[in-house]
Design brief:
144 residues; five-stranded antiparallel sheet; 19% strand; globular
Length: 144
Amino acid sequence: MNGAQPKDFDAYAHGRPPAVRKRLAEMRETVRNAAPEATETISYGMPALRLDRMLVAFGAFQRHIGFFPGSKAIAAFANEISGYKSAKGSVQFPYDEPLPRELIARMVRFTVTAAVAKSARARGTAARGPAARTTAPRPQRRPT
């Protein structure tokens, strides 16, 4: 890669070794099948899926595919990803092991469900506006 930000998945995968391109394509297919309504994009220089907000991203590294489903998905699937190196919002899938496609798909669907719920809450709050508040306004502070 020449250091320029890739514009799409094909540009991201271009120039990588064949085995890495194959793994990236497998990851792309898995996440797209799990969230067919999502849009592909590039985020932080990596392939990602977006649905009103960022869902997941993934990228090729020297010895692994990094998968970034966010901290809530990592926490929810902590037992299932315990055999992999992980951090607060990511997990690493080594090139020398099969890609756990079903696990990845479930993590993507979890993230989609959370994003849809969050978007619905945000739309509901915005749609009601301040006139629909159910609590009384706070009393004004008296000058001291």
